[in-house]
Amino acid sequence: MAASVVPTAYRQGTTAAVPEWLNKGDNAWQMVSAALVGMQGMPGLVILYAGLVKKKWALNSAFMALYAFAAVMPCWILWAYKMSFGHRLLPFWGKAGLAASQDFLMPQAFLPSTQYKNITVAAQPLYSMAVMVFFQYAFAAVTVVLLAGSLLGRMSVKAWIIFVPLWTTFSYSVVAFSIWGGGFLFQWGIMDYSGGYVVHLASGAAGFTAAYWVGPRLQEDREEFPPNNLPLALAGAGILWMGWTGFNGGDPFAANIDSSLAVLNTHICAATSLLAWICWDIIIFKKPSVIGAIQGMITGLVCITPAAGLVQGWAALIMGIASGSIPWYTMTRLSNKLPLLQKVDDTLGVLHTHAVAGTLGGALTGLFAHPSLSSMFLPVPDSNGAFYSSRGGLQFLKQLVGAIFVIGWNVIVTSIILHIIKLITPLRMTEEELKIGDAAIHGEEAYALDGRGQNERSMQNNENNNDVEMHHPYV
């Protein structure tokens, strides 16, 4: 940074790093929240995926999540952050630009409420732009990792490598700007406290669409896909759950009362949803399921996300019951009745755990959002839940329209991206890779079986599968 552009506050010896405008408490909480959100993706979802899939897909599933988490960062710094939270280019998109520019350490003033007339400022972060860029990066990265859950067990690594930056640029940034960055849905008063739409509905809709175009797993994998390590999956689920403390608690952009409420509501809804899902499993299937408990936890976390700091505790309880029941029904019952849901191979059921739960949470936000809490979050008049306002029914309808936009945009853009990639490289793995799994794709396996080392195992696979080359320099 050239001396001529460094603010005076940074050139005063020992106090240079603590200018007057910086609030140390807010700054520390926001960095902790960003780290918690990041840990949801790496290692949380990485090891959750590795544990939930069939053994031969453990490494490839973890790799897809790991790659996506890393690949979003250069896109975010070079252009996507400003497209999501920069100056308006179109009603639904911001202007591309460098986030790592000379104003990187300046006071953060990105909030959309400062950019448009007839809207007053709701909050002003009292820390540098660097903190906000990292916090929002973690959200963008986790979104793409969640999307990967629909595609495990058959998408080509090369296709996935190309897909991640394109989807981040043309899908995530559009929805983020439209709802959070000052775009037309923000102006209209759509409420999405922490990503029920921007993260979860988007990843669920895009993942299901991508699963349609990439095609299903091998029939043998669809019929028999036992988790290879449930304790590992539980560890990943635990990191995901606790990481949600920062996911929702960081979105007031300050360490304040609203952040505390958001954290409490998050855990109320998650626990209630998990218990509701277990109850349904016991009632219908006569036994509780560990995988079911994980699904119920996730749907509860997703459902409360758009409402976390906007509703009271009793509403979080009701939302937990709903999120442990409606997605349970769509996943265990409706998916066996609708031809489209039977045809599309959504590996981990992201449509149900994220798209259905995210839409449900957004709709219930339109019912339960408290006026006092709403006014602290969104500086748009009459953005209150239907239970508290004579015009609240309009807010409920707005929430549904917002969900339709997110679904429609992701279906269209994801389809276009995949058709473009298909011109460059196949979307699916080869038949040999589909049959063998990790050893054919990466030259590595998750576990050494029967006391045999990796090299010996790879050599045997190589001999038994038409001399497919599986030697890897790291093995």
TrEMBL record:
Keyword Transmembrane helix assigned: yes
Domain named Ammonium transporter AmtB-like: residues: 28-447
Region feature Disordered, mapped onto this chain: 451-475
SUPFAM superfamilies: Ammonium transporter
Superkingdom of the organism of origin: Eukaryota
Keywords: Ammonia transport, Membrane, Transmembrane, Transmembrane helix, Transport
Pfam hit, one: Ammonium_transp
Compartmental location: Cell membrane; Membrane
Predominant place of localization: membrane
Transmembrane segments: 28-50, 62-81, 126-148, 160-185, 197-215, 227-244, 264-283, 290-308, 314-334, 355-380, 400-421
InterPro entries linked to this entry: Ammonium/urea_transptr, Ammonium_transpt, Ammonium_transpt_CS, NH4_transpt_AmtB-like_dom
Family from the record: Belongs to the ammonia transporter channel (TC 1.A.11.2) family.
Protein name per its UniProtKB record: Ammonium transporter
